Amino acid sequence: MDPRLKQLLEMTSLYGTLAKYYEHIDPEKHMYFYQKHFMYEKQLVQMYWALHESEHYHR
Predict the structure, then answer these.
(1) Contact 11, 40 (CB under 8 A)
(2) How many domains, the chain?
(3) pLDDT tens digits for range 3-40
(4) Helix residue ranges, H only, the chain
(5) Cβ neighbours of residue 48 under 8 Å, at least 6 residues apart?
(6) Are 33 and 15 in contact (CB under 8 A)?
(7) What's the rounded Cα separation, in Å, for the pair 19 and 21?
(8) Containing domain of residue 14, as a range?
(9) Other CB atoms within 10 Å distance of the CB of residue 19
């Protein structure tokens, strides 16, 4: 697995978990972590498709 993709997966998971944890405890922290999660999630999807397309063209 590409190390950049692995790192984005880890960050997406971490911030998703923190957002879920704070969802009913602290709405402000929930939104902070959810925004981080969403930012990394978008980067993850973009990188996934970039790598997928790159693989497809190298075959």
Answers:
(1) yes
(2) 1
(3) 999 999 999 999 999 999 999 999 999 999 999 999 99
(4) 3-22, 27-57
(5) 5
(6) yes
(7) 5
(8) 3-57
(9) 19
Checking if the pLDDT of 57 tops 70, the result is no
In this structure, which amino acid lies at residue 6? K
**End-to-end Cα, the chain, rounded Å:** 17
Q: Match 């497809």 to its residue by tokens.
A: 56
Is residue 59 helix, strand or coil? Answer: coil
Contacts of 20 (CB under 8 A, 6+ apart): none
Report angle CA 18, 48, 14 to the nearest 5 degrees.
10
- State whether residue 1 is helix, strand or coil: coil
